[in-house]
Amino acid sequence: MTISIQNIRGFSDVLPDESPAWQFVEQTFRHELERYGFDEIRLPIVEKTALFSRSIGEVTDIVEKEMYTFTDRNGDSLTLRPEGTAGCVRAALQRGLLHNAQPRLWYAGPMFRHERPQKGRYRQFHQVGAEAFGVPGPDVDAELILLSGRILRALGLRDVTLEINNLGTSETRARYRDDLIKHFQAHAEHLDDDARRRLHSNPLRILDSKNPAMAEVIASAPDLLDYMDAEAQAHFTAVRAMLEATGQAYRVNSRLVRGLDYYGSTVFEWVSEHLGAQGTVLAGGRYDALVEMMGGRATPAIGFAAGIERLVSLVEAAGSVPDKTTTQAYLIMTEPTLAQNALAIAESLRTQMPTLRVQVNMGGGSMKSQLRRADRSGAAFALILGPSEAAAGEINIKDLRGETEQYTVAIDRLPAVLSSFDSR
RNA sequence: GUGGGCGUAGCUCAGCUGGUAGAGCUCCGGAUUGUGGCUCCGGUGGUCGUGGGUUCAAGUCCCAUCGCUCACCCCA
């Protein structure tokens, strides 16, 4: 079949088969975040372009080539949000949430980046984000990491590992960056094309290269950790001590660099081996300079974002998605003329039993096909209404899963009977 | 943006050196006049991604194009 209009590349549908896993991931985040004192904030999907270009960094890949930017009817440049932190900071500042308060906020929803799609990477993707404002750490840093670990465990994910790093202050990072460029320039003959291109735009990224030919130049490069000042050292040590005290395993990865300009100090990343090339499942870090940069009073902050699609794929592979609640009762009728009675019975049942799931067969069909639908709906039992039952104010109950013999009851006794089935 | 792999039924796929489109699953009906699952029988469903070319003849060969997918880059 040739369908004339299809979805946009990289914008996927979440089909009914997949939605239980999505709900599981979303509900787990909501539940654990609330338990740690985070409150939900709902933010616009479109913001002024300048919000992102200024906060994320003009020369990052996101801003340079990945944003969905358009001009609206007023001539303003608007952008579909590529990430959540900028909008959250904007809202917190604009609405006065940061005034004499240390809010902890979480949000969830779609983000948009115009990249080439591949496994675990889509143009519309979904994140859950959490941001904690006003606390300089290291206690929040550690708690946020512990929270993210708890969420991943609650999702039943075992094979995810925690990597942490400290990017130091913007001054020490600039000094490190300069030395790194010098180092790579001195060994320019060993660099591949990508590395040469990134030498000035993003030299820290060269450290991540997977090219074995460059392993030696990279290994001999200066280490960021050697550049940290005493304060950053102390902060990093304290975070590590807190993780150790709570039994949270981690690996220090001095090559761990976040892609957005506003990150500094503590950064962390949860990584899975089962996702192909896009293994990062949840990542975050401290961004103490961002609030002030956006016009607010200097306010320390830290946050993380998790990729729902990646987590859904892991959770499905791990088989940890709880079974979907299926239809408990499926009502069928032997004559189409009984549809009125069937609807009335179902409505009355739903009113009397608020938690009951009951589906009425629609569109007729033979007894055989109706029962087949009842079976495939996953219902625990079928309610069968024929002319004789209807006339007598009764209905027939057929147990589709257990051993109970089929029998007929008065309709007003149905709630009691179904409850007894339910507690079985 | 660059490269590899792949586009045949709703799904998973077969279709040799060109000779009028197939299987399994699903769905619908029947075997069983008001009784599902298992079995058996039958049926619905395709402009073979799209456009052009070669040929008496193209799912098959050639060209272009679109899409999907994985990887690079980058990131959740």
Task: Please describe what this structure looks like.
The protein folds into 2 domains: 19-168 and 228-318, BirA Bifunctional Protein, domain 2 (2-Layer Sandwich), CATH 3.30.930.10; 329-422, 3-Layer(aba) Sandwich (Rossmann fold). The protein has helices at 19-35, 49-56, 61-66, 85-94, 139-154, 170-186, 193-201, 203-206, 215-219, 230-245, 290-293, 308-318, 339-352, 367-376, 387-392, 414-422, and strands spanning 39-40, 46-48, 68-71, 77-80, 104-112, 124-133, 160-166, 251-252, 264-272, 280-286, 301-307, 329-333, 358-360, 381-385, 394-399, 407-410. The two termini are 47 Å apart. Helices cover 38% and strands 21% of the residues. The chain is built from 16 helices and 16 strands. The chain is of the alpha+beta class. The structure holds one RNA strand of 76 nucleotides.
Write the layout of secondary structure elements.
Blueprint: H1 19-35, E1 39-40, E2 46-48, H2 49-56, H3 61-66, E3 68-71, E4 77-80, H4 85-94, E5 104-112, E6 124-133, H5 139-154, E7 160-166, H6 170-186, H7 193-201, H8 203-206, H9 215-219, H10 230-245, E8 251-252, E9 264-272, E10 280-286, H11 290-293, E11 301-307, H12 308-318, E12 329-333, H13 339-352, E13 358-360, H14 367-376, E14 381-385, H15 387-392, E15 394-399, E16 407-410, H16 414-422
Parallel strand pairs: 1-5, 7-8, 12-13, 12-14
Antiparallel strand pairs: 2-4, 3-4, 5-6, 6-11, 7-9, 9-10, 10-11, 14-15, 15-16
Helix pairs in contact: 1-5, 1-12, 5-10
The protein binds one RNA strand of 76 nucleotides through helix 3, strand 6, helix 7, strand 10 and strand 11.
